[in-house]
Specification:
2 strands, binds adenine, 53% helix, single chain, 303 residues, mainly alpha
Length: 303
Amino acid sequence: MIGAAPQLLAWYRDHGRSHLPWRQTRDPYSIVVSEFMLQQTQVDRVLPIYEAFIAAFPSFAALAAVDAGDVVRAWRGLGYNSRAVRLHALARTVMETHGGVLPQSRDALLALPGIGPYTAAAVRAFAFECDDAALDTNIRRIVHRVMLGLEYPPLASAQELDAIATDAIPVDRGHDWNSAMMDLGSTVCMARAPKCLLCPLQQSCVASPVDATCLSTLAKAHAKRAPQASLPFERTTRFLRGRIIERLRDEPGLEVMTISALIHDLVTVVPPDRVAEIPHIVDVLVKEGIVRASEHGITLRSS
Ligand code: ADE
């Protein structure tokens, strides 16, 4: 891996997605927004919403100045609205605690709402050009394959893989190294059917060429037992919250809606035995600052 970094970076130059808008900027705010959006949503879906979001809220100051409901509204199409709420809280903390300037240190980043070890490393690499490795399952899979062979059975812990990866980053190339590994993981070194013949790391990869049948047998043998009868999505609180926010977001002209009108609109959408929970979930959304309640009814918060 260490010796193969030049091949990886050359591959990225010719085949990588360096045109992605968040790779063409070092603006910490834009990078944070992109990382929050990309946490659980595919690049193609993020692209148009990211552009519109940055145009609407171009800085931490602009985002902190609006209400959480406005941010949730602009998040439409990405799902997982709690990310929008955390991003908004982060913007307010950056304004109140850091004078509007995103801190660079790992510890200060980790103390911000919505930032865990992965996002802290990604922000440091992409905004500040630090040589941190932003390791998610995709990049750990590549490191395992290249250095140790197929990832089943796992031959190293996540921490060991992280240490190997960090050592592999050529000095001052953290930005492109992370971008290259992300692209390699999604287009070449995929979990199920890797395209080893197209891989810039094939000469130095312990696992190459991966035999897809063997990979699938090993993966099945190591598959975690399915969680016991997990709840269908329609029965989760996340589903109910999503339907309430969606209904309020679609209300033209930000008009106030009564709880009974909201319930009336949602009876055909949510399971009948959960309709009674709607007022409670609305209370929670009010406490979280997403919904505003007045004597006339409720609306998505906006400034
Ligand atoms: N570029 C920067 N961060 C990314 C991510 N999380 N996914 C894909 N491309 C990225």
